[in-house]
Amino acid sequence: MKRPLHAHRLLFCALGLALFFAGCLKDEVKTTLRYAIYTPEYKTVKEIRENLTTLAPKDIESPGKIYVKGSYIFVGERNKGIHIIENSNPASPKNIGYLEIPYNADMAVKNQALYADMGPDLLGFDITDPQKAKLKTITESAFPFPIWKDENYKLVIRWSKRDTVIHSRTEAKSRNGEIWSPYFDGMAGPAGSAGTSGTYGTGGSMARFAATKERLFTVGHNNMGVFNITDDFKPAFVMRKELDRGIETIFPFGDHLFVGTVSGVKVFALTNPDNPAEIGSFGHIRRCDPVVTDGKHVFVTLRGGSNCGGNTSELQILTATTPTALQLVKSYPLDNPFGLAVDGNTLLVCDGSSGLKVYDITDVNAMKLLQQIKDIKPYDVIASGGLAIVSAVDGIYQYDYKKPAALKLLSSLKLKK
């Protein structure tokens, strides 16, 4: 069909005007704005559940919490999933797989069972072969969290990035920025000890999950959940204890749970693991508060300059021999502390922008700084048997600390630039 003559004329006119204005705009550009545009990619709850198995390994983009079980390290990708690292040789760790779990924040392991949260749900995986993890159970509505409407409810699983340049004819200061489309809708964007039976992994001091005594203990902002995991792959909800607001972390040790809050430390006895009983506490100024213990002392980092309140930061050391009567022994100033770990007479502190600090705590009243590694910004650390595994802003580092005054870097899994 032939296009009418007047249509051709209109087309030529339109093209001419477009070229004219393009030339004018090019001549009149005043500002160039560069943006990274992030667009969400969705999957339904059903699609996610059907594909909860080990995927091909992917680059670590935003490392969070870490968990160690045997020769494996499980690294949280903040609110997105869990990386599986084979670590039989700490000098040469291998990234072997990835579990894509939207809204995941925490994890714990008993025997060959990996427990992880996915929003309101508790997932149980068989990791007999971590490269072929199998979803065994879903405990729905296990946590206080907005409930999925149905299996067709769509969740953001990742954000795809596209760089773009915008030209403007108005005067403006050139700058870089980010555009999120649509706006944030709840999905985060770029951004242990032995029990009575079974074998348990070890979590860091920033953990909100703790597996011990045939139970999985979880803490939320104002509560503690208890799950019976006697049958590894059939966790059974037992109860949820209402606690004060501001609950942050949980650390199991022997017959007790040490819980860090924004206003102090709480100690729970596990005489009856189905109903942990608060037996002691110690109050401090409002701060963010990870906690670890060696049975003799409790070590607490208090971080200021955050949502937890205050501006000063410090390390507090409490007596722990009598959990019902925690008392302050000594305080030491810090700069920007997060997680920490203790092993024998060695204390490792993740002091954020000030790096990883290593202390001799032979005398807690005269603690000595042995070394400060300033070229990393650490978030959390797990230390045992001379091996320290550190989660940092730019990756996962492993150090030999058999000589605490001279840590030896064994390996680093750096973020992809």
Give a description of the structure:
The chain has helices spanning 5-28, 45-50; strands spanning 31-44, 63-69, 72-77, 81-86, 94-100, 107-110, 113-118, 121-126, 134-139, 154-168, 176-180, 202-203, 209-212, 215-219, 223-228, 236-242, 247-253, 256-261, 264-269, 277-283, 291-293, 297-302, 313-319, 328-334, 340-343, 346-350, 356-360, 368-373, 378-384, 387-392, 395-400, 408-414. The chain is mainly beta and 417 residues long. It has a domain at 30-191. A hairpin with a 3-residue loop joins strand 14 (215-219) and strand 15. The radius of gyration is 26 Å and the shape is globular. The N and C termini lie far apart (54 Å).
Q: Could you outline the blueprint of secondary structure elements for this entry?
A:
Layout (H helix, E strand, L loop, with lengths): L4 H24 L2 E14 H6 L12 E7 L2 E6 L3 E6 L7 E7 L6 E4 L2 E6 L2 E6 L7 E6 L14 E15 L7 E5 L21 E2 L5 E4 L2 E5 L3 E6 L7 E7 L4 E7 L2 E6 L2 E6 L7 E7 L7 E3 L3 E6 L10 E7 L8 E7 L5 E4 L2 E5 L5 E5 L7 E6 L4 E7 L2 E6 L2 E6 L7 E7 L3
Parallel strand pairs: 1-11
Antiparallel strand pairs: 1-10, 2-3, 2-12, 3-4, 4-5, 6-7, 7-8, 8-9, 13-14, 14-15, 15-16, 17-18, 18-19, 19-20, 21-22, 22-23, 23-24, 25-26, 26-27, 27-28, 29-30, 30-31, 31-32
Protein name: LVIVD repeat-containing protein
InterPro entries: LVIVD
Keywords: Signal
